[in-house]
Amino acid sequence: MVNQSQRLQGGRLRRVTLFAAFSVLALSSCEGDNKKTEVDVPQVTVEVAKLDRDVLRAAGTGEIKAQVESELSFKLSGRVIERQVGVGDRVTAGQVLATLDPTEQLADIQSAEAGVSAQDATLRKASSILNRRKTLIQTGALSQQEVDSAQQEFLSAQKDLDAAKARLETAQEALKQTELRADADGTITARNVEVGQVVQASATVFTLAHDGARDAVFNVQENALSTGAEPISLNVSLLSRPDISVPAKIREVSPTLDRSLGTVRVKLSVENAPPEMTLGAAIVASVVLAQQDRISIPWQSIFSKEGNPAVWVVDRDALTTALKPVKIERYDADRVVLTSGIEPGELVIVDGVQFLRENQKVAILKGAAQ
């Protein structure tokens, strides 16, 4: 049998064990409360808002073209029997570029020459008759009416000869038109015929880029021209050699829209273009549209307040949050440029914005901008 002393010792042991258990639970509860308190204060990363020079730039690719180009064509139809130049060839004013078969024109010249010879003979005969009758009228052998008739025949023969000579000149001019000549010094940039091909009058045969001033030509989206503002600076450089760059200025903006591409053709005048900027060279235009001091923030900082963009900021002294509406100028690759809403020096929350609320206490991570 267990004596009374043993029962008393057992009771004390159970009380000590229960007290120890309650103590452990109490300590665990306190530790949990402390951890919960620490979790309730979110840690955030911030960035100090500051003004930076915001340069609005634009760029586009195009090509070098002559400021003046000619569409060369024959003035009459015919078959091409000779082509002297091709694309890229340098030509001089008056140089023969292509020739049509002149058989028909040569036949016309022969016919016109024969007509001139016949009318010349008719005129000589009429002149001889007129002179003879003028002599005879002085003797009274002929009447004045016969002299007047001879005079009319002479004048008619003279007009017929003039008409025959005009037809000959026309035939000779047509023969000249069988040769297509350059109208200026320059470079052939396009060719639309081959030997043996029949061409129609006024159909473009060659495109000639005149020597002299050069243009940088671009196809620009219509909305890029909607502001109408003049660029601050504009430079053109070679796509393959960015170090070769020259200033340019807008010379012409096409009033028509290319409906298939939704673009407008813009021509930039390139003065003193270097020799490397040859016709057809691919170039890049770099445009500075505007410059202004603005605040930019990481795109992760953007939040929403009542459907409008907003940014969380931290009060430096109280370390509490506030959600401030902002106006956005534009979105860049990794940052958002603001028009207004944030002042320089404010602490903008970069990470941890998803579960914040107004006037919430936060802790700034070590190493964050202060």
From TrEMBL:
The keyword Coiled coil belongs to this UniProt entry's keyword annotation: yes
Coiled coil listed as a keyword: yes
Domain Multidrug resistance protein MdtA-like C-terminal permuted SH3: 305-354
Residues covered by the CzcB-like barrel-sandwich hybrid domain: 74-209
Coiled-coil portions: 147-181
Pfam families (UniProt xref): BSH_CzcB (PF25973), RND-MFP_C (PF25967)
PROSITE patterns per record: PROKAR_LIPOPROTEIN (PS51257)
Xref: PANTHER family: HLYD FAMILY SECRETION PROTEIN, MULTIDRUG RESISTANCE PROTEIN MDTA
Protein name in UniProt: Efflux RND transporter periplasmic adaptor subunit
UniProt source species: Rhizobium wuzhouense
